[in-house]
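**User:**
Make up any protein.

**Assistant:**
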Amino acid sequence: MTQSIVIQVGQCGNQIGCRFWDLALREHAAHNKSGVYDEALGSFFRNVDNRYEDLPNVDAGDTKTKIRSLKARAVMIDMEEGVVNEMVKGSVGELFDHRQLITDVSGCGNNWAVGHKLYGVQYRDHIIECVRRAAEQCDCLQCFFIIHSMGGGTGSGVGTSILSVLEDEFPEIYRFVTAVYPSSDDDVITSPYNSVLAMHQLTEHADCVMPIENQALHDICHKINQAFPSDKPGKRVAMATVGKVTTEGSLAAGAVKSRGGNPSAEEKPFDRMNNIVANLLLNLTSSSRFEGNLNVDLNEISTNLVPFPKLHYLVASQTPLYAVSDMHMPPRRLDQMFTDAFSRDHQLIRADPKNSLYLACGLICRGNLHVSDIRRNIDRLRPSLRFIHWNTDGWKTGLCSVPPVGQPYSLLALANNT
C-alpha cells in the first residue's frame, strides 16, 4: 500500500486540511472497527508509540498491530501563526507532529511576491527538512497533496514556491494541487494578481491541479441549505458536516480523545465549504486506501487524464452533495447521480463543461455499484458530451467497494476540459 503526504499552506490550506483530517479519521473509524492499524489507515497516518518522548521517530510496528497513537502525514505551513495554533489546540491537534509546523509572525500581506520570493527562499531549507522527514517515514511514498488558496500571499506565494522545491528534491513523486480560487467580489484587491502569478507556477511545476472556486462552494452550500432547512424535521446530514472528533469505534478512541459537545455548535463559518474540498480528496484517494473491484491508483489519474504535461487542470464534480438518509436508493437515483456529475450545479468551479471539449474524463465510484452500472451510464451520457476527435474513448473508471460515511454510494468526476 502506498502513502501520501499532505502539505497545507496558508490560512485556507490549513483550514481545509483540518476538515480533511477530521473526516478522514471518521471514515477510517467507520470502516475499521477492530482498532488495528491496517494498510488503509497507513496511507495518511502513522502509528507511533506514545510511551516514548521522541514520538516522531518511534513507530509502533508495521500494519496489523494495535493502534497506539496516530500521527498525520502532514506538513503545515503559514506565515501567520494564528490558524496553525488554533488547529494544534483543536479537536484534531493531537494528530500533528509539532516538528512539522512552519510558522512566522508577520505574514505575507496578501502579496504573491513576498510569499514566493521572500519567505519561500527564507524557509526553503526548513521546508525541505520537514518534507524529507515525513518522506523517510513512508514505505512507498506516491504523492504529495498541496492545499492552498490562490488569492492570499502565503497560499499563492509560498504554496507555489513549495512546488518547485518538490520538483527539485522529489522529482519522481506526483504533485497533486488543490487550489482555491477567489470569487469575483473578493475584498482582497491583490487577489487577481496573486492568482495570475501563481497559476503560471502551477502550470510549470504541478502534475495535476484541481481548481476550486470559492463562489461555486458558496452556491453549493446555499442550495443544500435550501433543500435541507434547519427547521425542517427529520434527519439532516449535510456535506458530512462535523465539528468534533467523537469516539466512534476503537479507531477514533485510540487516535483522538473525545471532547464531547454538540457537533453543530462547534461548526465554524467555513466548515461546510471546506468539507466539500475535504470530501473531494477522500474520494480521490479512496481506491488507494480501500479495496475495490476496479481500483485506480493516483499515478493512473495523471497518466490517463493528462494528454500533455501542461494540460493538467482537472475540473472536479461530486455527487451526492449530502448524506442521503434513505440507504435503499432506487435504481433511477443511481442514474441521476451520473447525470448530476456532469451538470454545472455540481461543478466545483462555475462553468458548464458541456459547452467545451473533453480531453479526457475520470469517474471514481464508491459503494455498492457494479462495473456494468458504470458502463451503462457512460454509454447513456456519451452522446451529450463532446470529446476531442483523437480521444473519443478517453474514459478512466474506478470502483471502490467502501462507501463514504452515511452514504450508500458516491461519484467523483474529474474532467480535463477546455
